[in-house]
Design brief:
Layout: H1 2-14, H2 20-29, H3 35-38, E1 44-49, H4 51-54, H5 59-68, E2 71-74, H6 80-83, H7 93-105, E3 108-115, H8 122-125, H9 130-147, E4 154-159, H10 172-177, H11 181-192, E5 197-202, H12 208-223, E6 230-233, E7 236-238, H13 244-255, E8 260-269, H14 301-320, E9 325-330, H15 363-370
The structure holds ligand G3I.
Length: about 375
């Protein structure tokens, strides 16, 4: 009797009568190609990480991330509002965990971000005097850049300092510190973090007017004898309207200035947006999703194909200029994590990354891998 039972168990686990659940598990575990291995001679492949991912709370993410990515950017935890909530108050815990996670998994960290007009702590928003703001500015950059020097690979020193027309954004920093604040931010970062690469990061800087503004910023920093190592083109685009010609021209223009070019927050939205243009300004929201969420239960093949083709076109271009590009970072590991589910309309179902909500590789993933063949 015992022998018959053992034979039955063996059969059910090895032959095609295996329970459905077991088959599904085996399927999930079958290896897929690795982005970081595929492009290891071309550029780093990064992802944004949220708190749960840094703390390895989701086993599927914890398994996938080190296999696919060799670079990472904290999606939120190193922004000023979170890491520096009061004059003399810093919350280093999560950033320290991120550094440890990066060391354990051989993932290069780009700390994000030192000077940004958004996600500022309340005490900074209420500052009215230039002296007080300069004090915050100096303390913030010096404390963070020195603490993580040699522990993170790079910093986004200044983020989103430009308007769409290429002029400087009228942020609290411009208004109270004047236009030299950008050079000063890099000067302070260079002093505090001599072993860390320093970048300017912005969205839509592939567009001609805004690109010209970014070129001016980079030239001005260099003319002041201050170090800037790279520029990050964020890459928040619509899958159906990727500005390939402008992207290519930007790669050429920025690399001609002697800085590394990176795509730092890549995602491709497939949902209609109320403005019909690319926008990553987080203050520009457009209400909730009632009646505006076209694909709550999955993406139709026609739209999936647009997404796949968009990623394929982009990676062909990136490979063409791999000598100038040092990193491609996706803004989120999977579709469920993406900020685009809540922007510009809250509570929608977007599909902008290479992995679906169950961390399964999408057709776009395989198209990206295939660009190497
Ligand atoms: O942590 C709080 C939580 O306590 C609170 O209950 C909840 C209620 O809204 O909000 C949570 O904070 C949210 C935070 O993400 C963490 O999830 C903020 O509301 C939300 O505004 C914030 O959005 C982030 C956004 O930047 C603003 O900082 C997105 O996750 C993040 O993907 C996005 O990333 C930016 C880059 O840093 C710069 N470039 C554009 C890019 C996309 O906007």
């Amino acid at each position: 009797m015992i022998k018959i039972f053992i034979t039955f168990v063996t059969l059910t686990t090895t032959c095609s009568f295996a329970p459905l659940q077991l088959q599904a598990q085996n399927q999930n575990q079958s290896p897929i190609p690795s982005l970081k291995e595929t492009f290891k001679n071309d550029f780093l492949i990064g992802t944004a990480l949220n708190t749960a991912q840094i703390q390895e709370k989701d086993p599927a993410a914890a398994q996938l991330i080190p296999l696919q990515f060799n670079a990472a950017t904290p999606e939120n935890i190193m922004k000023a509002a979170i890491i520096h909530p009061g004059w003399d108050q810093y919350n280093f815990t999560l950033a320290d965990q991120l550094v440890a996670y990066g060391q354990k998994n051989k993932i290069k960290i780009t700390a994000h971000t030192l000077i940004w007009h958004s996600q500022l702590p309340d005490f900074v928003r209420s500052i009215k005097s230039p002296d007080s703001l300069r004090q915050f500015f100096t303390n913030h950059i010096t404390t963070l850049a020195s603490r993580y020097d040699g522990k993170v690979f790079s910093w986004d020193v200044v983020n989103e300092a430009l308007e769409e027309n290429g002029s400087l954004r009228k942020s609290i920093f411009l208004q109270l510190l004047g236009e030299d604040y950008i050079v000063e931010a890099f000067r302070l970062a260079q002093k505090a973090a001599p072993h860390t690469e320093l970048y300017y990061n912005d969205y839509n800087i592939e567009q001609p007017k805004k690109r010209a503004g970014a070129v001016e910023i980079i030239k001005k920093i260099k003319a002041a004898g201050v170090r800037i190592d790279g520029v990050g083109i964020q890459g928040h685009w619509r899958a159906s309207h990727i500005p390939l010609a402008e992207i290519e021209q930007s790669i050429l223009d920025f690399s001609a200035l002697g800085v590394k070019v990176m795509f730092t927050e890549l995602d491709l939205s497939v949902l209609p947006n109320p403005w019909d243009r690319d926008n990553a300004d987080v203050s520009a929201t457009a209400g909730n999703s009632t009646g505006k969420d076209p694909y709550p239960n999955g993406l139709p093949d026609s739209v999936q194909n647009v997404l796949t083709k968009g990623y394929e076109d982009l990676f062909k271009l990136f490979l063409k200029h791999k000598d100038k590009i040092s990193r491609i970072t996706f803004w989120g590991v999977n579709d469920g994590q993406s900020w685009l589910n809540d922007f510009p309309i809250r509570g929608r179902t977007n599909y902008p990354t290479l992995f679906d909500r169950a961390y399964k590789a999408k057709p776009a993933f395989y198209a990206v891998i295939a660009t190497k063949k």
